[in-house]
Amino acid sequence: MGRTYFVEDSVEQYLQNILDTSGKACVTGLLIGQCSPQRDFVLLAVRTSPKETQSDEVDEEWVVEHATQVSRMLPGGLAVLGVFLGAAPELSVQAQNILRRLVFAVEKSITKARLWKLANDEVHDRVALNISSETKKVLCRTFDVKDPKSSAKPADWKYQTGLSASWPVLECNVEVDLQVPVPADFANRELDKCIENGLKEWVRLIQQCSCILNGKVMGLDKDLLDGTKKKAPPQQFVQQPFVVQFLRPSKFKTDDRSTALVQKSSGTVVLKGVVHCKAYIHTNKPKVKDAVQALKRDVLNTVAIRSQMLFEDFLLNPEGYTEKGARTEEYPLPKRVFLPLAGTGVMICDYMFKDEAPKDIQFRIKELLDLDVKEDQLDMLLEIDSAIKLAPKTSHPQSNIVVAEPETSQLLEMFPDDYNPMQLKVGVVIAAGVALFAVVFSLLFFSD
After folding, report:
1. 246-299, pLDDT tens digit by residue?
2. Cβ(350)–Cβ(357) below 8 Å
3. Which of 25, 97, 216, 369 could be stapled to 56 by a disulfide with Cβ–Cβ 3.0 to 4.6 Å?
């Protein structure tokens, strides 16, 4: 039996509109939503951004780059689930071959940029939707992206109203304080790889953190919505919010053998500040572990994405580097801006550099997601710029993100009713409404 995709009904109208107005033999795009063991959910369809030079040929590289950019704009729990292709009936055979190539190429590109990997027991099927440009009939199939030789499997495609109306939202603010040594023989273009390697221990730490949801410790195998699920009235979104705190494990487990390593270093990269994270989870009997995992992955994604974006700027403007002298350079990473996805109960995001304006966000949203957004719909206050001076440090890489997990009896003392997260000095990862965003990228270079 194939998988079943429940699709927001606004997607049907969107697909029909772009097929009617594109004027091209083939129209490609992305399908965005969420997977679960029993069923999958599609909340949004996005046509591939148009190129300056129009062509009826499908540009695989352009589709993949578009998918990579769009994946950065998704909060925890949402992902690019596959691709769609609208074509004339006589191109149906070629369409299936094109869809297969696109599905695997898109997944490979998105996976490469992550700091985490899908577990073997998670859903690896990705959807390939073929739409007749004349009859608008859809043919839905899936491919197992874990197996490059997998064949297409049939799947059901069902439209539904208010699909994500009552999806719970999990939120937290995460303090980041990381130092990564830069090897003496590194090249500027390899700095992103240096950061990625330096973040491996931090990634394992985040993955092993315990969680408190709305001030309570919940078993990972319990249903997230036990005793809280409410049916949303027609045309009204009613969500169950969860404020999450991460607690560092008392014993940090690692699969790697502990060894000492002496390495010549030319400097240090410092990542420091507070980031706001969100994750959404479906209402089909979600488990606590699935919701927490979605939020943790958003933490990992947002730190990695900001670093990648800054390095891309560096490659375009290499004059920021010099080879001699001793100095400290600070570069504010882009802050995260959220906006509601019309017709759903979720928000998407973008990243704004300090020299950018809201109109730049509006332009990118239109270009990448084909959505018209008003300036007052942009929530730019969840992360507020804050000036932080980073002094040079020479210690080994470490993270002060979270503290040791307290005993259950200590929870009320650590989180009193009048708790102010910005005043807690011990480093607990917090999850309140508004946080100061002060992630700063600092390069400390030293001459021989």
Report:
1. 998 776 565 556 566 677 777 777 888 889 999 999 998 899 999 999 999 999
2. no
3. 25
Q: How many CA atoms lie within 13 A of 406 on its CB side?
A: 17
Q: Could you tell me the pLDDT band of residue 239, with boundaries at 50, 70 and 90? A: confident
Please give the sequence-ordered ranges of beta strands (E in DSSP) within 69-108, or none if there are none.
79-87
Number of H helices, E strands in the chain: 8, 18
Highest mean pLDDT (candidates 319-333, 350-364, 391-405): 350-364
- Bridge partners (DSSP) of residue 330 are 442
One-letter amino acid at 226 equals D
Long-range contacts, 317-326 (Cβ 8 Å, 24+): 318/188, 321/188, 322/445, 324/447, 325/445, 325/447, 326/445, 326/446, 326/447
pLDDT digits (tens, 9 = 90+) for 190-210: 677 777 888 888 999 999 999
CA angle 168, 362, 349 (to 5 degrees): 25
Burial of 187 from C-beta contacts in 10 A (0-12 / 13-18 / 19+): exposed
Nearest partner of 340 among 350, 332, 331, judged by Cα: 350
Residue 213: strand pairing partners: 216, 244
Handedness of CA 147, 148, 149, 154 (dihedral sign): positive
Q: Is the pLDDT of residue 408 over 80?
A: no
- What radius of gyration do the chain's Cα atoms show? 23
Contact 447, 326 (CB under 8 A): yes
The pTM score is 0.83
127 neighbors 155 (Cβ within 8 angstroms): yes
Q: In this structure, are strands 440-445 and 265-280 parallel, antiparallel, or unpaired? A: antiparallel
Q: How far apart are CA 427 and CA 76, in angstroms?
A: 23
Using alpha carbons, list the distances in angstroms from residue 389 to 23, 174, 226, 358, 429.
Answer: 54, 19, 45, 26, 21
C-alpha triplet 172, 173, 174: angle, nearest 5°: 115
In one-letter notation, the amino acid at residue 6 is: F
H/E stretch holding 200 reads helix 200-208
CA angle 126, 26, 82 (to 5 degrees): 10
